[in-house]
Amino acid sequence: MSRILLAALILLPLPALAHTGDHAGGFASGILHPLTGSDHLLAMFAVGLWAASLGGRALWALPLAFVAALAVGGSAGVMGVQMPLVEPAILASLVVFGVASAIALRLPLGAAVAGTAVFGLAHGLAHGAEATGDFAPFAAGFVLSSLGLHLCGLAIGRIPMLPRALGAGVAVAGLALAVAG
Fold first, then answer.
1. Which of 42-56, 73-87, 126-140 has the highest mean pLDDT?
2. Using CA atoms, how far apart are residues 109 and 115, in angstroms rounded to an integer?
3. In whole angstroms, what is the distance from residue 140 CA to residue 130 CA?
4. Residues contacting 120, CB < 8 A, separation 6+
5. Mean pLDDT for all residues in the chain
6. How far apart are CA 43 and CA 49, in angstroms?
7. Residue 70 to residue 122: CA distance in whole angstroms
8. Mean of pLDDT values over 33-44
9. pLDDT: which is higher, 15 or 51
């Protein structure tokens, strides 16, 4: 069963990158944005998978660190702050979170939170840099949607062996997107 789910996730017909300039569409656009780009969808899902494999305080600390950094990065991006290699960092997040889930990587909680936050910042900067119009409703939507994706990863990550299999799939998808890009 997990092989079928893994194949379905890898073969989803989603755009390679979510940054299409649709950041001015308000709250509904913000909700949909992380769901329509495989880079964001898979990274946020994999944060939940990895948090589930770590358990304990990581269950809430990793998703909250990502979302907090996402919001800070989005705000900074709107103000013109730039980070070199933001798109490669976003693709690297898929590989890192995927591998971390696949091998059930055990890091000290502080290190896991810090790494998760760095990638959340990169995702947020990309959103904010491309924003036009009123960013607040869009940001509220993408933060809420991101939390939902983390929760999906947490829920599925509690099923034995799925975090490892799906994490490997996320890592492979990240590598495929990097090569395709």
1. 42-56
2. 10
3. 16
4. 65, 66, 67, 68, 69, 70, 73
5. 86
6. 10
7. 7
8. 91
9. 51
Model confidence pLDDT, tens digit, residues 4-17: 444 444 444 333 34
**CA gap 174, 27 in Å, rounded:** 27
Q: How much is the average pLDDT of 45-50?
A: 97
CA dihedral 97→103→104→108, nearest 10 degrees, is -70
| 55 CB-near residues (< 8 Å, 6+ apart) | none
Tokens of 154: 């947490």
Angle CA 115–118–124, to nearest 5: 140
For residues 74 and 142, is the Cβ–Cβ distance under 8 A?
yes
Burial of 24 (0-12, 13-18, 19+ CB in 10 A): middle
**Type of residue numbered 125:** L
Amino acid occupying residue 23: H
